[in-house]
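hey so i finaly got around to running the thing on YbaL family putative K(+) efflux transporter from Craurococcus roseus. pasting the sequence first so u can double check i didnt mess up the copy paste, my clipboard has been acting weird all day
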Amino acid sequence: MQHTSPMLATLVLVLALALFFGAVARAFRLPPLFGYLVAGFVVSPHTPGVVAQAEFTATLAEVGLGLLLFSVGLHFEPRDLLAVWRIALPGAALQVAFATALGAALGAAAFGFPAGPAAVFGLTLAISSTAVSTRTLEDRGQLGGPAGRIALGWLVVQDLLVVLALVLLPAVAGDGAGADGLPAALLKTALELAAFAALVFVVGRRFLPWALSGLARSGSRELFTLGVVVSALGVAYAAAGLFNVSFALGAFFAGVVLGESDLGHQAAADTVGLQRVFAALFFVSVGMSLDPAALLAAPVVSLLALGAVLVGVGGATFALLLVLRVEAATAAAVAGAMAQIGEFSFLLAKIATDGGVLPPEAGAPVLAAAFGAILLTPLTLRAALGAARLLRASPRFRSWEVGRRGRPVRPPPGAVLRDHAILVGHGRVGRVVAEALRRHGMPFVVIEGDRRNAEHAKAAGVPAIWGDAARPEVLAAARPEAARLLVLALPDAEESARVLALARRANPGVAAAVRAHSDGEVELLTRDAAVGLVVMGERETALGMADFALRRLGLDAGAAQDTVDALRAAMPGTAVP
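ok and heres what it spat out for the 3d tokens, dont ask me to read them lol
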């Protein structure tokens, strides 16, 4: 009888439970990560029944952690912060400082932590979950509006503060973390980080995009995806092994380097599935550390930690946004969506616990606060919006708000594409369309899946994005929500239909022109009533030859054109402007 490996059994069990409890969480309109935490708790050593292999799960979780930070680095764009820096930079910094101080006071009172560990404990209660915040705003249709832009800028500042904390944690955890040795430990950590950053940004900025561009030009999407994963984990491993920089922080820097290149959108698209799977394993490993005995031993501390999150994150964000002249309803939407903690709080708590900065029992209140705050997100959002309505009902507040209201939050300065055409495909057909638009100075952007074609287009001065337009991360770079026209010059009708459906979700009113090769493809593509034109090459060839024949045999041009138009209209499935 063949016996399965315990590690294989652990992997299958953990993924199956993550899937089950994640689906249950979504059924109750909760983020899947809540279900992942429950799955980890089910197979933890603190509950009866099956116990997953902690060491193997922890290894997989470390990979998930690296890919999670790599994804954050890929999506990190300074322009997102610059668009709202007058609000996000001071607001998020003050909010994190206030929440950290609140949490630190709780840590000092409950556990007797000295200043350093107390600050780390406080910071775990100060950082919102990007996944929960953005999903909450997306469900309300506000992610693309002022509330979404403020929240994204706020989250960027929080992410940067987490990165800074990851840099300082080794110094706090080291032998020289005492009052006399801390400056030397901080200096040593800063020098190691500076050496690593210099290597990544001077050498890696050139080498990684160059190497991955070669894989992209080979035409093998599998090799490119594998190259991206090797880049992320390889840089992270080198950071940990050679420079004593955390594995997660090394992956973040790799993501930033690739995100700066034109490979970033496709890299994000190709790794998003893998990142989500391993991130689920990370959250499962966090759930495995939840000890009910620790919660029962200190229920008051857990409740106070939850209160610190609601007040220090949600309440402080709402108050600071009002002070920073943000309209009350927008401030309430941002605060309600961000009044919780998640992945980065777990990350900090796990690294701090593994490094000996925090004792294991300190993780229980953090997990309890995260569970409670995520569960309460719908109620928190409703309460924040109710508070905004009460404030707006006050004549004194309305006059204060009007008198202090600042400039509206505008889109990021780099996002200048508006009322433009998105041309998908820059082959024989797409190049002609692009040249026609270019000659008349009309705004457009090209998405091209062939790396060589994309590079040739850029060399010719054509604004081009390399990647698969059927992937949301790639299409989003062309800003379909602000586009006026979508031209699908792809040879594959099914791929065109996928891109069209994706674009419709971002911009239901965008007009479209599509290429087809058969009557069946024409029928498929014209199911979308808003498609303005479906062009089938063989039909246009036949109509062109018919027009030439009629004129050559003596029919005047007007009558020939009328006949061609009548024939075109009689063809089945033909869409007209």
